[in-house]
Amino acid sequence: MELILNDLSSNIPAKDIFLGRELMNNFILVCKTAINKGAERSLRTTENFYKELIAPDYHIGNWLNDPHVDKEYQRYLRSLSHKAPYINSEVENELYQRQLNSDFKFDGKQGNGLGAAYLLDGLAVSFKSEDRWSASKLYLVMEYLDDDVADIVTEEILINHASDQSHLEEHLEWFNTQKLNRIIDGKDLWNRRESIFPHLVFCERVERQIRDLHFGNPIFRQTIKRLLEFNSYFSTWNGLFEPDYFSSKVTPESKETLTRFEIEHTFQLPNGEFKVFSWHARMTPGPWRLFFIPDEEYNKGIIGHIGLKLPNVTYPK
Q1: How many CB atoms lie within 10 A of CB 187?
Q2: Per-residue pLDDT for 166 more than 70?
Q3: Residue that is last in its domain, among 147, 176, 205
Q4: What pTM, to 2 d.p., does this model score?
C-alpha cells in the first residue's frame, strides 16, 4: 500500500515560515506513522514537488535546506519522495492508460493525486492546509469512457485519506487488510493464522486445506476475505450467536442433511472432541463452503472445513 500526495493540498502557503515548518512537520509525521503501520516507504508526488510553496517565498526545496529544520525530517522526506510523476507511463503502462482515460475531481477541481490514490488503491496524504482535508475519507467524482456503452460514465468513489495522525487510527482495519495482500500462498497464510485471525480456532484438517491454496487460485483471496469477516464477528462476540450480523450470509444445514450425512459433517476439534458442523458460508467462484461452529468454550469461532461443499440432500455425493 503506497502513499500518494494530494496535490490539491499543496502549494497553499501558510501565513509565515514558522507555520510553514509546522505544516511540513505534521506532514512528515503522518507519512512516518503510516509507514510504521504498514505502508510502503515511498511517496508518490508531482514532478514539481520541491517547488511547492509552504509559506510566502518559502518552498519545499527551501525547507529541505533550512538549518532551523530537524535534519532527520529532511533526510526522511528525501528518502520518500522519489516517485514522480504519480504513475510511470513506461513501467506502469496499464495504470497509465487508465489514468489517461479517467478524470477525477474533488469539489469541482481536478485531483490528479487523489485519482492516482484510487487507481493504486493507496492512501492519499495531504498537507493540513485547509479544513476540507480534515476527513479520513474523501468522495471523488470519476468520469471515464465506458467502452461497453460507448459513452462517458460518471461515478462517485470513496478513497482513504489522511492529513492527521488521528486519521490513521480510523484506517487500522484497512491497513491490516492491505498487509494480507502480501501473503504469498496458503502455507504463508497458515503460518500466520494466529496473528491474523486471533479470534478463530482451526481444526487440524483445515491445515491441509489452507496450505494447498496457491496465490493464483481465485478462491485464495475469497478464503482470506471470509476468514477476516469471521474474525471480525467473533472479536466482539458475547456468546449470543446472531447470524444476521455477519458481513456475508451464513446458513445452517437442514436437519435431514445432518441426519443423512452426519459423518461427513463431523470434525475433530483441537481439544480432541468431535462435533457436527452445520453453519456455513458460501465462497465463489465454484461450489466452495466454509463450515464453522460458534464455540462458547473458546469464545471464538471454530473453522472445521474450507473446501468444496459437503454432501447434502440436494447434492448428495
Answers
A1: 15
A2: yes
A3: 176
A4: 0.60
